[in-house]
Design brief:
287 residues, binds iron/sulfur cluster, eight-stranded mixed β-sheet, single chain, alpha/beta, 11 helices
Length: 287
């Protein structure tokens, strides 16, 4: 497929066979199929192998500090709510260094898409256990195997009343694309955790392992949070699909309810002097 969202001129700094390639392709196909204008899209990432993904997409992008994609995405969305803002990164970056931001992004329910490539290991820094590494997983650092309980992003998001919670496996291409599309069309914070193998530093959670240890949810009521939580808590095999989706007031709707409380940066964006005046007024009122 000739996809105009992938930058052909950019070398992809990933190992041959890395699952990140598959996610890059799926995300770009979804952007193409949803006909989202490039000028409306902003991708934000932090540090890690997955965080390189926005570099390879022909969209507006910002690459920030380790674990800090979500606060930057929040700032961008607040400055211009009309933009489609996506925070993308790996399990280490988003749930480890960025763990606190993850909790607050769910609670705020800002209208953004949150894509997390989950390979259960830190790839860029050569194979340490990440928050989602499974128990007994041995690395050069965790020589006796991981003893911590793996972080469960889906059950955490559900417990904070997230408005869209999903998991996919990148080898299930059409299924993953369906979920990505639903996440882009959702009004509110949308988490999609995508399994992808690291073929160099995770010899346990391989393509075969993910296939054998996951299944696609059938006949699941996505409006039933208790059922979603029950399925999120079950692991080995891991369920894949949209676990939960609800309509909930977004952060933007809660904050800028009326003309009086409308976003000063956004409403005055074409008038620089007025923007400065409003900025001073709002900034000084917090001092
Ligand atoms: S180290 Fe792992 S995650 Fe990083 S590029 Fe290689 S295969 Fe992918």
């Amino acid at each position: 497929m000739n996809n105009t969202f992938i930058r052909p001129e950019t070398d992809k700094a990933w190992c041959p066979g890395c699952g990140n390639f598959g996610i890059l392709n799926l995300v770009s196909e979804v952007l193409e199929e949803l006909e989202l204008g490039k000028q409306n899209l902003v991708f934000v990432s932090g540090i890690g192998q997955a965080s390189k993904t926005p570099h390879y997409l022909d969209v507006n992008m910002y690459n920030g500090l380790h674990g800090r994609a979500l606060p930057v995405a929040t700032g961008i969305k607040m400055a211009n709510p009309e933009l489609i803002v996506v925070a993308e990164g790996g399990d280490g970056d988003m749930y480890g260094e960025g763990g606190n931001h993850f909790l607050n992004a769910v609670r705020r329910n800002l209208n953004i898409v949150h894509i997390v490539h989950n390979n259960m290991v830190y790839g860029l820094t050569k194979g340490q256990a990440s928050p989602t590494s499974q128990r007994e997983f041995k690395t050069k650092v965790q020589v006796n195997g991981v003893s911590n309980e793996p972080f469960n992003p889906l059950s955490v998001a559900l417990s904070l009343n997230a408005s869209f919670v999903a998991r996919a496996y990148m080898q299930n291409k059409e299924h993953t694309k369906e979920i990505l599309k639903a996440a882009f069309l959702h009004q509110g914070y949308a988490l999609i955790d995508i399994f992808q193998p690291c073929v160099v530093f995770n010899p346990v959670n391989t393509y075969k392992w993910f296939s054998e240890n996951s299944y696609i949810l059938e006949e699941h009521d996505t409006a039933n949070i208790m059922s979603a939580m029950e399925k999120a808590m079950q692991t080995h095999p891991f369920a894949l699909g949209i676990f939960y989706q609800q309509e909930r007031k977004t952060f933007e709707e809660s904050l800028w309810k009326s003309e009086e409380t409308s976003n000063p940066l956004y409403t005055q964006k074409h008038d620089i002097k007025e923007m400065q005046k409003q900025f001073d007024k709002y900034t000084l009122s917090y001092l």
